[in-house]
Amino acid sequence: MFKGAYTAIVTPFGRDGGVDYERLRELLERQIAAGIDGVVPVGTTGESPTLDVAEHEKVIATTVDVCRGRIPVIAGTGANSTSEAIELTRHAMAVGADATLQVTPYYNKPNQEGLYRHFSAVADLGLPVVLYNIPGRTGREIEVATVARLARHPKIVAIKEAAGSVTRVSQILDACTMTVLCGDDGLTLPMMAVGASGVVSVASNIVPGPVAEMVHAALAGRWSEAQSLHRHWNRLFEDLFIDTNPIPIKAALAMAGQIEEVYRLPLCEMSAALRQKLAATLKALGLIGSGG
């Protein structure tokens, strides 16, 4: 159901600390103009843990309004409370989101039966569900057997794999019919080589065109072209994770003049040494000027 390059869009804040909805609209228009296949608001990169419910819902509604059916919106509406995930997903449905991204419940670390019931309860609402496996943040992996069991639900259509394992892609595709989207920019091409259908990308916030070109080349079987693009941009893929996501990508966008560099605690700016490293990469790739 979903394939291609999807941007895990950042949530821009103004100097007053509030969500900058006008900047969000500008970012989304850049994504569409660059040929990205879809966007994912209020995921990890969108700083979902520090948005209140009203902001969460307004970011999704704004994203849907801007995209206006031009590209799909997979709304981040996950939570470690099933009732909260259901509430957020109902709102996403009401404003016209195309699907929901459902992260593995974090901190409370449910067992596999609990995960099955949680995701099934959200999927029962009727909005297509993209599972989000990221054990490094949640402390719990969705086991392949559980993914296969969930795949039998008609509304659970895909999984975002951010466990850093190419092997899991093969295991999932062997176990069930499920679209797999990569959740790590540097692993996009390796995962697509074994059957993934695209990526939910952090890097495409700043280079949407090249990420889309790489993914489209791979989908079309133009592997040499895709490999060349991967090698060219891999330094960026790596450096966007030298600190906790989304700190580096927001710093990069700020250096490029696209947003204000504002975070909400407990996230804060990166160290001077890491900033210098990131800036050197952005300059080398022509994304900012020598004075950036």
Structure description:
This protein has 292 residues and is of the alpha/beta class. The protein has a single domain (4-220), classed as TIM Barrel. The protein contains twelve helices and eight strands. It has helices at 21-33, 53-67, 82-95, 112-123, 135-138, 144-150, 166-175, 188-193, 208-219, 223-239, 247-255, 272-284, and strands at 4-8, 38-40, 74-76, 99-103, 129-133, 156-161, 179-182, 198-201. It has an eight-stranded parallel β-sheet. Helix 1 runs parallel beside helix 2, helix 6 packs across helix 7 (166-175) and helix 9 (208-219) runs antiparallel to helix 10 (223-239). It is globular, with a radius of gyration of 18 Å. The model has no long low-confidence stretch (mean pLDDT 97).
Give a quick rundown of the structure:
The chain has 292 residues and is α/β, with parallel strands linked by helices. The protein has twelve helices and eight strands.
How is the secondary structure organized here?
Layout: E1 4-8, H1 21-33, E2 38-40, H2 53-67, E3 74-76, H3 82-95, E4 99-103, H4 112-123, E5 129-133, H5 135-138, H6 144-150, E6 156-161, H7 166-175, E7 179-182, H8 188-193, E8 198-201, H9 208-219, H10 223-239, H11 247-255, H12 272-284
Parallel strand pairs: 1-2, 1-8, 3-4, 4-5, 5-6, 6-7, 7-8
